Structure formats: structure tokens, C-alpha cells
Amino acid sequence: MSSVLDGLAVDPASDRAVFRQIADQLRTAIRGGRLSEGDRLPSEAALIDHYGVARMTIRNALQILETEGLTRAEHGRGVYVRRKPPVRRLASDRFARRHRKEGKAAFIAESEQSGARPDVDMIRVNEMEAPSEISGRLGHAGPVIVRSRRYSLDGTPVETATSYIPADIARDTPIADPNPGPGGIYARLEELGHTLERFTEEVTARMPTEAEVRLLALMPGVPVFRLIRTAYDAQGRAVEVCDTIMSADAYVLNYELPAH
Amino acid sequence: MSSVLDGLAVDPASDRAVFRQIADQLRTAIRGGRLSEGDRLPSEAALIDHYGVARMTIRNALQILETEGLTRAEHGRGVYVRRKPPVRRLASDRFARRHRKEGKAAFIAESEQSGARPDVDMIRVNEMEAPSEISGRLGHAGPVIVRSRRYSLDGTPVETATSYIPADIARDTPIADPNPGPGGIYARLEELGHTLERFTEEVTARMPTEAEVRLLALMPGVPVFRLIRTAYDAQGRAVEVCDTIMSADAYVLNYELPAH
DNA sequence: CAGTGGTCTAGACCACTGC
DNA sequence: CAGTGGTCTAGACCACTGT
Lengths: 260, 260
Prior knowledge:
- 2 copies of one chain form a homodimer.
- The first copy, chain A, is of the alpha+beta class.
- Chain A has 8 helices and 10 strands.
- Chain A has helices at residues 18-31, 44-51, 55-67, 106-113, 132-138, 167-170, 184-191, 210-216, and strands at 71-74, 78-81, 88-90, 118-129, 143-153, 156-166, 196-206, 224-233, 238-247, 251-258.
- In chain A, the strands form 3 sheets. In chain A, strands 4-5-6-9-8-7 form a 6-stranded antiparallel β-sheet. In chain A, strands 1-2 form a two-stranded antiparallel sheet. In chain A, strands 3-10 form a two-stranded parallel ribbon.
- In chain A, a hairpin with a 3-residue loop joins strand 1 (71-74) and strand 2.
- Strand 7 (196-206) of chain A pairs antiparallel with strand 10 (251-258) of chain B, so a sheet runs across the interface.
- The structure holds a DNA duplex (19 and 19 nucleotides).
């Protein structure tokens, strides 16, 4: 009976803690392909037997791998090598006007092109005072229409987004309606005379909050992108700020930079 | 004697595990400002006394906060609320030619402008076959000059970068020299007739490897950005691929997107 | 039901810090 | 030196999974 553990042993005299040595060996087995995506790791009991250590030592080792995002523990089933989800690439021209022509919002149009089944839920719309982080980017304080929603692909949540539009622009328009109509709110903004001229995006990454873990069904060890996009019209006025949280293991962000 | 723990207790009958409840209460104290940046948390012994639980229960709670990046444990001293490092904003025009005129490489010029003391070390240059990830972006296989280095600000490492330039362009030029001269390798590429026309950047985020933790002196719970930039010359040829790893808590990436 | 991981207890010894 | 966190042992009971 051969096992991924064959020949592996720890050196109790080493400077490196035993649980780290065990984590190292399991990590090497995963990266080296001796344990593939979806494979089950030896159970805690098997590891305790093999290495001759206490359970907490094994659990500390497994915790390292989970924190690194390499494994996923399933209660009552075992610890598994995590499968990498399909990656979604965002092109930097995804908000170009030509992509808005067919009357579809950016997320829907893009996903259907890549063959995934897009879904939007948890849509909420209300009006409030802009938080300072938002009013700073909009360039003025005052009430805003807030549109929040969650996007999923093939049933898996991948991103939450909250848009802030100045109320003097959006109040009593389809933008303040849960369903803003074909082309999404960018199409409505242009119909209202706010031709979109440019966007800026600010990208940060961090570990998720507990609320984000729930909303995006995030696995442990997966960071999130926070992407704050500001849309400017032809007059140079900021007409929307969109605050997006994305599962980092599901996205690659592509950008095009000028050299001149 | 007042303490941040005053009035805090756990409900052993709750569905939520005791160590999570304790972590919740400490997190709330930090976010609510009752514990500020740099403050010491109550010691493990004090928490054991206060909550009347075993040490592992406390340590599990503290581990949650450390994984979230909220605290930092210092052996023999205590557990402290982590200070947020100064943030470095990268503008999307940072490689524009006009910024290259004064004869300084992008990182140096930019840092001095922001008042920090930049430093570059661990410079290594050699020639090898391009890894497939790189040759794919360069558009052809073959030998490449590999330049790797580490950037620091005020003595703190913030970023490692590895550039790959096709050897048929860079061999026996200053680009293959550890010190490529004023303006960096982009200035040299342009002198060699490769006028830089555009750049693409691909941004991902993930938890760091152990090697990255060492190189960038990363705190636990801090993800890294991986930014792969490809530089194209006026003929449309990819002349450099730069693979960068950045501490995510030290960076905000800014991009400008066209609307047309 | 047996086997799995989740939580928790009650100790032990060690290494590091600061006085 | 006392106080701190780092590592480790040897148990216990529980909740969840699959047969």
C-alpha cells in the first residue's frame, strides 16, 4: 500500500517546528503533483500515526496549507486539495461604448461571450447621503442613489458591486429603478446627456471580511480585489462611483497603458 | 482598573464557537478604536483569566485576527494591533516617456517625488531559456536576458521584479549589465530602436509563498499583487515582460480607461 | 455505524523580551 | 528574573458524512 507519505519523516532536532516541516512536506506533495486537485489528503488520524505526533501538531500543519489556499477541509469528509476555479479576465475596454450597443449591461454581455451563465441577484436600490469615501470621488457631497447587487457565474457568486450616482442626476429616472432597462445604467446616463468620456479604476487587494466571505462564498486563504471605478462625462463631471469586491481567485484584471 | 475586556463575555450555549466569539469581540474593539494601531492586546494569560477558557481557545481566537491581518504577535513581547504601512499609488501613466526624461528609472523618480528614500538591491542578471509563461507573452520562444531585483522604500522592501528581454535584443548591450545606466532599461530599449508604443498589465492577487514572505518581509494575512507587464515597441513586437510581486497593503493601482 | 474534521481542556517545556 | 508568545502532548466530546 503506497501513500504520498512514504519515506517522509520529520527531524525533531531541526530548528524548524515539526508542524511546519509536516506542512512543507504536504505542500511539496501538492505542488509536485503527487496530490492533484480534488485529491483527499491523508486523514488527521493517518497523519498522527505516520508522524507519531499529537493531533494539534497535525492540525497546525493543515491550518498552514488552508491559510495558503492550497487545501479545503470538509467536515466529516476529509481535507482536499483545492480546485482552482475558472478565471475571468476583465479587459480594459470592457466599458467601451461599442460593447454597449446590443443593449446588454457589461457583465451580462461579457459572460455570455465566455460561455458562462450570468446571474444578478440581491439587487437593492435606495437613496442616502454619500459616504465621504464616495463624495470625495464624486467631487461633491449630497444625496446619492445607491444601487447594490451581486453577480454570479454558473450559480457561483463572483462579485458584489455598489454604484453611487448623484441624486440630482438619477432621481426619478430608470436609474433609480431596480431594473434600469437595456444597456444598464451607463446607457441611461448617456440618454440623460451624460456622455461617458473616461473611467478611472483604483485597485487594492486584501483579505475579505466575514460578510464578504459569506456573500461571495469565499474559501479560506482567498483574498479579494476591491476595485473602485469612477465614470466621468464629457463635461468632466464624475457621474458614478462603483465599488466592487471580487474573489481574487476568479479574476485577472487586464489593462492597457499608454507609452506617450 | 478598566480594560478593553470590561463587560465582555461569551455565550457557551451559542452556535458560534467560543474562540470565534472571542475573536469577534477583540475585532470589534480594534475596529471601534478601543484598541488603536500599535496598542498591545491583553496577554494570553489575561484573556484566559477573563474568559475562563483554555489556552488553545484563546490562541485560536488570536490566530483568526492574525490571519485577517489585524494583529501581529511578537514573541516575548505581546500581541499588537498592526500599523498600516504608508500606501504607494501607482499611476497608469507611470511609464509615459515624459517621466523618463530626467534619466531616472520609474521607481526611483516616482519614490523621490513622494519623499521616500528608494533603494534597489539583490540585482541579478543572467541569460536563460524563457519559461513558457514568458515566451507566450513575448510571442516567441528562445533565450532571454533575465534581470531581477528588489525595491525598497525607506529600508522596507515593497516589491520584487523580474524582467525578461529577448536575448537577440539585449545580449551584449547595457541591458545585460547589472547597472543599465540612466533612465533604466526602457531608455536603453528606445536607444536600440525599439520605441515603446504601449504596455499591457495583467493583475492578479493571491496569498504569498513562503519565499515571498521572506523577500518582502510580509506580515501574516497580507496578500500580494502579481503584476505582469508587457512592453510593445512601435512595430508591435513585445520587447520586455516584467513579472512583479508587490505587498498588497502597500499599493493602490490606478488605471485610466477609455470610454470610446 | 465508523470515520471524518471541529472544538475544547489542562497541562508541559521552550525561546524571546525587558527589567 | 518574571512575563510573554511558540510549540507540543494526550486526552475529551461533538457534528457531519457516507455506508
